[in-house]
């Protein structure tokens, strides 16, 4: 599974030689390399709409499937409670994540993601599309202990066990949500669209994110606006605000953390499969002056040779051309936000 996603990224090397091993904790003023706006235009860039809130769905509610379907149509994102992931599994991954990001820069750089690689420490994959650096560090894990061994040659097991437990739990939850979502879309469990769900032949990756305190949060960007390439993403965030979703007509809407609640968002692949019936949520992360923020995302989707095509019922015209996951990853790696419009049929 890990090798397959690596294969898709190998053809799109990221030029990481200009990564700034910025020791965020020692910085007192915002460097120009990280300044996204002038001090006088910051209000426009970072304003948001607090009058709206993203639905919170209880997974054990008998109507959860319909509620999830409606949330996907309206928002492309929802919050999930009673999700069944043990608190201890989430706490462990949080502890290990904090341990990793608190290391000195030179330790973390031992596991720097190679240009054609898919895992390890480094900047966000979307970085090359933006002129400024983000106030963010990331680490991608896909089941292998190789990167952790570079950082902790003898003492990597705790970290890897925590990541693996989290990954296994997230996979089970993703499969459950996927069955509910496909059923909502009118696809039965034995059909072709469902075959990858529950098999080992899928893509599952953990993305650890860290947003250090920032001296000028109104001029810096934690994670720039993007949609996820996944089928769906499940995210745990620590108790610091920062994640926002873009809603047409309303602007940026915060998804502030709720204890014991995960955030689930629709990625490009499900947006295509739903023939654009489901929204794929554009999201970003803003930063904070006094509070650090961590998040742990699990990206879930079909294997790279799976053909993504819109599920169309009642002679509705497909809005996207069919293509493999690998082809879509390749288009996204070159076009980011423009990728979907390149595969539309009209
Ligand atoms: O940190 C967050 O809340 C969002 C992270 C995210 O969007 C991502 O890893 O793709
Ligand atoms: Fe994301």
From TrEMBL:
Start and end residues of each Fe2OG dioxygenase domain: 199-302
InterPro entries: DIOX_N, IPNS-like_FE2OG_OXY, IPNS-like_sf, Iron_ascorbate_oxido_reductase, Oxoglu/Fe-dep_dioxygenase_dom
Cofactor names: L-ascorbate
Top-level taxonomic group: Eukaryota
Keyword set, alphabetical order: Dioxygenase, Iron, Metal-binding, Oxidoreductase
GO biological process, one term: gibberellin biosynthetic process
E.C. code: 1.14.11.15
GO molecular function: gibberellin 3-beta-dioxygenase activity; metal ion binding
Enzyme class: oxidoreductase
The protein's annotated pathway: Hormone biosynthesis; Plant hormone biosynthesis; gibberellin biosynthesis
Family the UniProt entry places it in: Belongs to the iron/ascorbate-dependent oxidoreductase family. GA3OX subfamily.
Protein name: gibberellin 3beta-dioxygenase
Species annotation: Lupinus angustifolius
């Amino acid at each position: 599974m890990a090798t397959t996603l690596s294969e898709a990224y190998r053809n799109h090397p990221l030029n990481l030689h200009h990564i700034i091993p910025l020791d965020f904790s020692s910085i007192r003023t915002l460097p120009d390399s990280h300044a996204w706006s002038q001090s006088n235009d910051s209000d426009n860039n970072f304003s948001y709409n607090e009058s709206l809130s993203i639905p919170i769905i209880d997974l054990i509610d008998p109507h959860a499937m319909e509620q999830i379907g409606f949330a996907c149509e309206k928002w492309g994102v929802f919050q999930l409670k009673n999700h069944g992931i043990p608190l201890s599994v989430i706490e462990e991954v949080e502890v290990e994540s904090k341990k990793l990001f608190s290391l000195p820069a030179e330790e973390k750089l031992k596991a720097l993601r190679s240009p054609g690689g898919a895992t390890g420490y480094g900047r966000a994959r979307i970085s090359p599309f933006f002129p400024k650096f983000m106030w963010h560090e990331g680490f991608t894990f896909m089941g292998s202990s190789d990167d952790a061994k570079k950082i902790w040659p003898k003492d990597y097991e705790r970290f890897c066990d925590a990541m693996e437990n989290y990954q296994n739990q997230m996979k089970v939850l993703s499969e459950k949500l996927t069955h509910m979502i496909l059923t909502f879309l009118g696809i039965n469990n034995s059909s072709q669209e469902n075959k990858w769900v529950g098999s080992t032949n899928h893509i599952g990756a953990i993305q650890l994110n860290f947003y250090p305190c920032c001296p000028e949060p109104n001029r810096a960007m934690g994670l720039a606006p993007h949609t996820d390439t996944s089928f769906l993403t499940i995210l745990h965030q620590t108790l610091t605000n920062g994640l926002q979703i873009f809603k047409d007509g309303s602007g940026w809407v915060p998804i502030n953390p709720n204890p014991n609640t995960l955030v689930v968002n629709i990625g490009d692949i499900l947006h295509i499969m739903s023939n654009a019936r489901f929204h794929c949520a554009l999201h970003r992360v803003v930063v904070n002056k006094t509070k650090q923020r961590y998040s742990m995302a699990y990206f879930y989707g079909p294997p790279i040779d799976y053909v993504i095509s819109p599920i169309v019922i009642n002679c509705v015209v497909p809005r996207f051309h069919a293509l493999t996951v690998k082809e879509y990853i390749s288009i996204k790696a070159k076009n980011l936000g423009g990728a979907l419009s390149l595969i539309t049929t009209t």
